[in-house]
Amino acid sequence: MRFDIVTLFPDFFASPLSSGLVGRALAKQIASVQLTNPRDFTTDKHHKVDDEPYGGGVGMLLKPEPIFDAVESLPVLPRREVLLMTPQGQPMQQALFQELASYDQIVVICGHYEGVDERVLNLVTREISLGDFVLTCGEIPALALLNGVIRLLPGTVGKEESLKLESFESGLLDYPQYTRPAEFRGWKVPEVLLSGNHPAIAQWRKDQQMQRTRTRRPDLWQAWMEAEQGLGQ
């Protein structure tokens, strides 16, 4: 899978893309990441990529020409999405990462300043947000998206079966997990996990998932309940 990141700050990605699971996945060529700087496509001597908004207002907007030229310089693979990182976009969720993991190419445009010229949306197939808040740049959500998608690609995670047991994969939050020692500062591991009774452990974990989701994320609980009722009809 190929990722193309259109960013004014390519150095932002240097350490994250060379570290951990993502770094190993790139080294194994499970995925590739190419960084393209819109500044390289400017024609004035100051390499200007932003300007004041028409109609007045605070801050500067990214100009359309450098972004269009940057995106249009990229190869086009058969299954491709062009994403714009913006607070106005679709919130990131696990289902989105699962969908994007099936594509051949993901182009990510990182917004900056007060945003981008509206005409840039003519390049974009989907607007994506990290959440209902504003950050200083689109590089932070872009990294989150890269991480979330690459870890789903075959070969990235050693035990791929573990991906199916994580939070959000079943619509529920993850269950509590413990490791040695069996007792730490008076806190004991639940007896069922030490029992060796695998059906009982599975039931305990499912019960914990349901309880956690119901108390911590009522929105997810409601969606899960509706989906379960739909399957039962």
Automatic annotation (TrEMBL):
GO biological process, one term: tRNA N1-guanine methylation
General function of this protein: Specifically methylates guanosine-37 in various tRNAs.
Listed name of the protein: tRNA (guanine-N(1)-)-methyltransferase
Domain (tRNA methyltransferase TRMD/TRM10-type): residue spans on this chain: 1-222
Lineage: Bacteria, Bacillati, Cyanobacteriota, Cyanophyceae, Oculatellales
NCBIfam families on file: PRK00026.1, trmD
Enzyme class: transferase
Catalysed reactions, semicolon-separated: guanosine(37) in tRNA + S-adenosyl-L-methionine = N(1)-methylguanosine(37) in tRNA + S-adenosyl-L-homocysteine + H(+)
UniProt binding sites for S-adenosyl-L-methionine: 111, 130-135
Subunit text: Homodimer.
One GO CC term on file: cytosol
Compartments in which it is found: Cytoplasm
EC number per UniProt: 2.1.1.228
InterPro entries: Alpha/beta_knot_MTases, tRNA_m1G_MeTrfase_C_sf, tRNA_m1G_MeTrfase_TrmD, tRNA_m1G_MTases_N, tRNA_MeTrfase_TRMD/TRM10
The entry's keywords: Cytoplasm, Methyltransferase, S-adenosyl-L-methionine, Transferase, tRNA processing
A molecular-function term among this protein's GO annotations: tRNA (guanine(37)-N1)-methyltransferase activity
Family note: Belongs to the RNA methyltransferase TrmD family.
